[in-house]
Give the backbone structure.
Amino acid sequence: MTLLTPLALLMLLALPVLLWLALRPARAQVMDVGTLMLWRLVAAAVPVTARKTRRLELLLWVLAAAVLLATMGAAGPAQASAPPVPVVAVYVERLGTSGPEPELESVRKRVQEQFSDAQLHWWFAGDAAQLEDLGLVQAIAPGPPQAEQAQFLAASAGASLRVMFVAEPVADAPAHSLVLPRVSSQRQGVVFEVRSEGETLFVRSGPDQPPKVEGASLQGASTRGAEVVRQYLARGGQVKVSTATQSISLSRQALGVGLGANWAGARHQALLAALQPALDGTTPQVWLGTSDASPAVGISQGQVQDLSSTQVQVDLQSPLFQDLPLASVNLVGQGRVLAPRKDWRALAVVLRDGRVVGDLAALSPDGRVLEFANDPFVDSGLAAAALLLDNAIGLVTGTRASGHQLYQRTGDLLPTRRQALAAPFEATGSAEFTPGQDATRSFASWPLLLAAMCSLAAAGLVARPGAGKT
């Protein structure tokens, strides 16, 4: 309990004034009478002690209570409670997709030192156990940085301050937020991409500290800002790339190709060699020259018909004709057409007078088998045939042959480019927040109400009939 206006207690000085007025001797009243003998006899008969006694009337007590209650009300009695502890919401961006988070201890130390008196609520898409001893940790769905930050901002709307530890500066940071760099120094030599183009490997990493590569020879390197791209030539079936914190293995996995009876000509063999396929018993990932397996690219599947005075119409929206020079592609070389089939999707058709004569290329309902009525890989130009085959394999398998990497990566998941190249930047925003106010509950109205009631009672005592008469 506390008093909001303690100086109001000076009003209590009115109590001794009231008491003094009540105890003052009454003035003698002069009355004109015919003789004083009778009153002298009365005065002599009254005891001395009785003449000196003063009776404190009810009116005095009522007035004293009114003064006391009014004084307490004016002083403002209230119940005060401690101010609420400010809540600081902290978002920590991940620097990896698995394993211990780098420089997480530095983040913990900076937050503890700067906001030691605040209640910390953490938001983290990684392993929450790495932060759970520092306060409430709330998991958010892993995703792109912008998506994670949006989740954090929506969930921490009631916090006194938001603190965001991120790999790159945040544009248009919200009010009452502080944006800090996730790392205290530029990350060095972190590999974030390894890909192959045939026997050539490309390794992208951060600056300095080149990775250790076994099973391949360095061919060259180039820089793009803080990024370094190193080119290696693989020497065997296994390649290992390692850094201080990463271990990445690559194994040679050629595209498995199965051959049908129709894939036997010299042009067919030349196109097959360009794929660098695995023909040593590996389970085929695609079949060429037959439609009896799946996924497969069948050729010469149509029946010969008279195609004079006809036009060819192709589905230009289909991936089969992506980036393909149609002028160099011959789909009607052998004069064959496929009979339209229910649920099959026609990708190229032959028209006569606006009516369909037959299909030149059709895709099965499950999208796993592509049939050509003729053999465009022999009848078309070599460059166009190679691109058509690349598109056809991509259509039935989901990955174009040119997109197949000869060396497949295993081992650690790689961080993103943003995570690998994280570097310090100038902090933005402010660390100041409005401290919580003391919560008070005032009780002044009750004593003031009672004081008013006592004042009304005193007025009633004064106004009653016979008041003040002796």
Q: What stands out?
A: The chain is about 25% helix and 30% strand. The CA atoms of residues 211 and 243 lie 5 Å apart. The mean pLDDT is 84. The two ends are 47 Å apart (CA to CA).
